[in-house]
Amino acid sequence: MSAAAGRYGVSASSIFRKDLGALFLKLMGGILVYSEDTSNLLIKHHMWDHPPLLEKK
Questions:
Q1: Beta strand segments in the chain, E
Q2: Which of 8, 15, 21, 34 has the highest local Cβ count within 10 Å?
Q3: pTM above 0.85, yes or no
Q4: Distance CA 49, CA 21 (A)
């Protein structure tokens, strides 16, 4: 997710149109909020270090 936000940042810095630059920055902010929410869910469900594993029966 950070790579996608970085791509929008590079695009915003290299574009000459102000309206598109503002749109890229808005999209980058949305990706960062989504990333934070995902991280909080992983921490809440104790899956930050590794994904859930199958239970052995």
A1: none
A2: 8
A3: no
A4: 36
